[in-house]
Amino acid sequence: MEMLLILAVFIGYAALIYHKFKINSAFIPVTIITSITGIVYIFGLANQLELSVQIINIAGLLLFIYFIVQALRKNFSMKFFLCPAIIFFLIGALYFGFLLKDLSYFHYDNFTHFGKIVKEMFYFDSLPNMNTTITFQNYPPATAIFIYYFCKIIGYSEGHALVAQAILVISILATFLWKDNLKKVFFNSLSFTIIFITISMLSFDDTTLHIYNLLVDGILGFLASASIIVTYYYRNDIKKNVFVNLPLLSFLVLTKDSGKLFFFICILFVLFSNTQLKAFKKNIKELKIILPLIILLVWVPLLFSSSWANYVKKAYPSTAYESNKFAISKSKLKETYNSHSHEFVKTLPAKFINRVFDIHSINTQLLISVNAISILISIIYYILLKKRASLQLKALALSNCMLVAYLIGEFLMYLLIMPEAEAVNLASFDRYFCSAIILFASTQLICGINSINKLLEHITTANNTNKRRPLFEKLLLLLICCMIILPNFYIVRTGMKQLFIRPNEQEFRRIDVKKACEKVKNYLGRDESILIYNGDKDNTTGFYLALGKYEMLTNDLNVIDVNLINSDKKKFLEFLAKRNYIIMAENDEIFWNELNNNNIKVTNEKDGILYKIIHENEQIRIEKIA
Prior knowledge:
The chain is 67% helix and 4% strand. The protein is mainly α. It has three domains: 1-180 and 216-323, no CATH class; 183-207 and 328-504, no CATH class; 509-624, 3-Layer(aba) Sandwich (Rossmann fold), CATH 3.40.50. It has a six-stranded mixed sheet, sandwiched between helices. Helix 9 (217-233) packs parallel to helix 11 and helix 17 runs antiparallel to helix 19 (429-459).
């Protein structure tokens, strides 16, 4: 029932955008989603998140009823839904709805921020503030806001949050099918090929597909790619360009701080590609229309970005901006740089360059193969048409310049913002690099489709007519698809495999910890004091600490392991003394032997997951609950 409500609201707004503004069907899903996010965000600044959802739904339903009536009276046609982009969007949403609805989070960053912000927004019906346990307080919340809207209708669960993010991704990818005609088999086939390659790139983030977590790095690349497609498609119509790009770019800058770099790249593309703007000298009246729209396109997203910065200052009055991990200020940059060792600063450039050009990296492989494909298309184009493939060459130059600019920014982040303990290993490098590579690859390949289409029209024209040779076209289509896929076969194969096979939840102890935390919350209270034991597994203390804080929505929690027991028995006993419950993420004899050595009694079996720590007359007793 809830999904039907969302579908009705979507149809209502889609019909309005198509009928009133005559927007390409491929751009409608992402326009609806980014616009809804912007509206909910504005209401959120006034602490009225729930009200915004109600208003959006009521308005959407009224539009749905209106256009259904108009369609029954034959005053309006719903045939615009029968296009590749909308069909792709609806099938993708349906597929991911079934794939993800019962799934749980596994990625560490879901528990430190991306999953936590969604959970707390739903819990408090507000943007993050002093009442929440968000650690990265200045992280922009765009994706979380849309997930909040979606879950407010169908109900909150981790699986539903993943479905919402997947729908967001599918809506962006639908823009790649901008020729809204099912008969454009050649174009649509190549576009689907590019979609498969770009979405497969997301499978190389910590070995899990982005679809199975709420991370936003890949979404940045997709959003910027969609903006460039919209700009190219509406290069002769600045009004429609601004109409679609305004919510899209506002969403982009509210997705992550690094989205501002992508934003400026997209704005430059608007300025250089718009034919009306180029001709303003010939028609000064046209400039009076175009210039305010360009200013609006720049000003509104920046206003959204600055409003978030102002909100953070008001929401966390006792927290200095510089205390945020990735805060950017003159004092913070200077402090971070001065804290770096001389050896780190000296070796960072070489280490960074080596990672960029690491031939074993999937990002680097795609970088090389896409450049090679663009050059090959340009050469073939010149040989057969006796003229330069200007669009392809511009895309080649622009995307490489963009990539260099992005990499310079990423290098400065490691040098001036990130703590040395993380920067020394170039933490999350592949994930950050992936954002730019997605934009880099999709820009070149989408322009490549256009060049190939022109090439095909030239080659297949017989006797100066527009008749095509179907067999030749099919063979050429097969050849070009192979040319694009084969260099990236490993990427596509791995990505597609993960796209159709869910992670095995039994491999993660997280499910047991989740159930134990839920038992504590549901029967004992959210404020109960928790201790987690994670045994002798290496590098899991931070994970269980983040997981426990996420499950209990508290920062008052400790994790102990074998190393602590062996190195600091006093602290181990102090933790037991001040906590009420202990969750056994790992169950081993070392823990129970240590309790025995300190004369701590254990009631019931030692094979449980949740135990109560009972304090009696300065003595401690452990009792199994579950």
